[in-house]
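retry 2 of 3: previous attempt timed out while embedding pyridoxal-5'-phosphate. Reduced batch size to 1 and resubmitted. Inputs unchanged:
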Amino acid sequence: DIAPYVGGESKVEGREKPIRLASNENPLGASPKAVEAYKALAAELNRYPDGGALALRQAIAKRYDLALDRLVCGAGSDELISLLVRAYAGPGDEVLYSRHGFLMYGISARTVGATPVTAPERNLTADLEALLAAVTERTRLVFLANPNNPTGSYLGYEAVRSFAERLPADVLLVIDAAYAEYVEASDYDDGLSLVERLSNVVVLRTFSKIHGLAALRLGWAYGPVEVIDVLNRVRGPFNVSAAALAAGVAAINDPTHVERSRAHNARIHAWFVRQLQRLNLRAEPSVGNFVLVRFGDAPGAAAFLKSQGVLVRAVGAYGLPDHLRITLGTDEEMQAVVDALERYRQ
Ligand code: PLP
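retry 2 succeeded.
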């Protein structure tokens, strides 16, 4: 009786191009260099990909100053979440995360017969003391999305460091930093430096968000050599496609596109929050490329927006029945959302 993960909606009947703000995708698209690299792959579709993802791991290692043998790539960070749970948890074990944490943690736990356990949050933010208090001798993995989806909240470096140091050494802490590149807060850290210091920390990153390569399915994990070795044993031999590898290398080597995307997000975020205020709507604080907005009737608001061709994400499955998560799109898309919300308010 495992409820499947249901992704954000992408279709509206009768509309060829709905406004898709339900999956936290980069509205500016991928780096033109990544698109070129993807196209160039067409000439070699008969060839298997490099199962060791060497060129991509080298590019990532160089970009972030990381050790090559602590890196493994996956078909999206989703695959890496599943592999970690499959490798480290089973029946009778517990997988811990916070109340409004990313849904895949619990789904992955159930698929291996492990028990998902959630700890309460404070102000829509993971409560690290509550998480520590929920650790038992059965806990195998703790997932911490930082920033978190769907809340958009984050935890500062010192808090995460102290939490990681206080966790039992035999519990693996997985810091899921899917939205790291968007964060502007000076006390934020993606956790990569903790991997060097502690033997039980793994960091996950993705190409699906700021790099705009969600369609290709590409993510990476950085962790202790022993954990990476285990992931290399449980993953498929060619788990990442050649197209994803090629586009990924080009994307990592195009920091200009990342910066352009970050700057766009920051600007449109500030603008959208002001527009919401004008409409007497409240956006929760977010450091990601999406905002949670509270509605009196969230399902009704989602249905109205859909009728206007705007797809947003209902987050009842995350325990947030009164909110909708709205991805920050292009200027034109966000203007269309504001116009639709104005009609909704009337
Ligand atoms: N982790 C978090 C926190 C996410 O929000 C998402 C996607 O929405 C993922 C992981 C999975 O991303 P992907 O499998 O596309 O890398």
